Amino acid sequence: MSKEFQTVFVGDFSQCKNTVALKERFTPEFYKLEKERIFRKAWLVAASMTDLSQKGSFYISDIPPLKVSLLIVRGEDDQIRAFHNVCRHRGDKLVQTQSGTTRSFTCAFHAWSYSTSGKLLNITDATQFNGINKEEYGLVPVHCQVWEDAVFVCLDDTPQETLEQFLGPEIYHGYQGFSKDRVKIADHKLVLKTNWNLATNAFSEGYHNLYIHKNTVPDYQGGAGNPDRHRPYLEVGRHFGRYSTHGNQNHKKTPTEAAVYAHSKPLFPWFPALDMTNYPPGINPSRFSQWGFDIVHIFPNCIFGPQANSHTFMTFWPIDHETTEIRNWRFAYGTDNPADAIAQAYSVTRAREVIREDMNTMETTLKGINSGAIPHIVLSQQEMLIQNHYRAVDAMIERNKP
Amino acid sequence: MTIGQLPKNFKDLQHLTEHWALTCEEDRFNRLHSVSHQELSDFYHEMLPKMPVILEHLSKCKLSALSNEDLTLYNLACTMAETSHPMDLGWGATDFPGAYTWRAFQFATISQSSRAKPAI
Lengths: 402, 120
Hints:
The complex is a heterodimer. Chain A is about 20% helix and about 30% strand. By secondary structure, chain A is α+β, with helices and mostly antiparallel strands. Chain A folds into two domains: about 260 residues, Naphthalene 1,2-dioxygenase Alpha Subunit, Chain A, domain 1 (Alpha-Beta Complex), CATH 3.90.380.10; about 120 residues, Rieske [2Fe-2S] iron-sulphur domain (Rieske Iron-sulfur Protein, 3-layer Sandwich). In chain A, the strands form four sheets. An eight-stranded mixed beta sheet of chain A has the order 1-14-15-16-17-18-19-13. A seven-stranded antiparallel beta sheet of chain A has the order 3-12-11-6-5-4-7, with no helix packed on it. The longest helix of chain A has 22 residues. By secondary structure, chain B is an all-alpha fold. Chain B has one domain. In chain B, about 40% of the residues lie in helices and about 0% in strands. Chain B has six helices and one strand, in the order H-H-H-H-H-H-E. In chain B, helix 2 packs across helix 5 and helix 4 crosses helix 5. Chain B is globular, with a radius of gyration of 15 Å. Classes of the chains: A alpha+beta, B mainly alpha. At the A-B interface, strand 13, helix 6 and helix 7 of A face helix 2, helix 4, helix 5 and strand 1 of B.
């Protein structure tokens, strides 16, 4: 009998638990704790640099758990800033369009206008405002830091940590330059009746892929010697968990896949062997020779998925304890070749069908948990990122006790 | 939908353009879920053998400077690529059991030009 394919485990697993009681975590009371002690304290992925590519580019990012709308903008000085998307006059929503490029922002209500650096430029009919100093009425800033092609925000009055401290050196320094020349190629949003933890968990383990993805990517992972598709590498940290997948070197392309990938770099779900010399150390950290892609859970609610020539950012936003907004952003190398772009479009939509399978578990799992039928869920070693997720939830709630 | 002319070497596909030369992922996804399996099969089987020569032709063009005819061909080929999965994967229908409802998807616009313009 052949030896089982072994995962390389890295990190401190001592506080991870292989059983987790979930029903008590999916109540309005527990959600209130998550909202105030996690989402108000953590660094959160709110925008991508693709949407902020030139001076004056802006992007509106709502943060559903905190019920705020943010205006993220590249100023004339090329600085990326985030502000509450709220006019300082009477509190109306300042910018109504999702994204664009502008030299200034003007409120539709009474035409107060602001620069792209947040400064109040003009009060209409200004003489009627007694004792108001314009300098004091710029847009309200929100803490904001750029990491590679992602813009993180922190809604805490004073962040407890810098983004670098929050992510840790493995993540913060491990991916330098990976997104150079990448562009956004898809942007999907969905709202599901599920808890945000379950939605995040569904993309935090690979144990399921052998079973629920039979209709979409039956042979993309694993291969000879790895019939159960174990992860080659799995690591946990304080605010992250990540693993590499085993790309099947005998993957059989579908007829359309074969046609379109004849004109492109390898894209999902085709993972041929790759020279990784020029990739930063965070990508495929163990340099597994039959690498497919990585999954990086950035706590609390982001799944970052680097691949050889593309990557994803998925974020899972609680609207309440049983409703979640999912944002699915996909990126690939920039190209001016139409055939290349068709291949990328194929890849996006093949992956879209795969994630529809993942999403199909989320609402039924919430119902199953809330039925009270089972006392806890049971997690394998291949599901260590989920174990680590609930460890991090508990640690952050405990740390931020009033 | 776009009703444009195709380049002269692809005129035999002209009858497909009215309903299949679609300009964005959302329209192509909606089209996939509004046709019968037979209609999808007819489109797929007419397009698949032509895909290598279409891609070869388009690979000599620039996405940022496509003629109207090449843009129509590009949109037709994109619709083929994006609606091929039920046929390629043998679902026997335009959708498959075990997939979350397609109606839940909301699409933000990704401009053609953004593909050719990397972030700073």
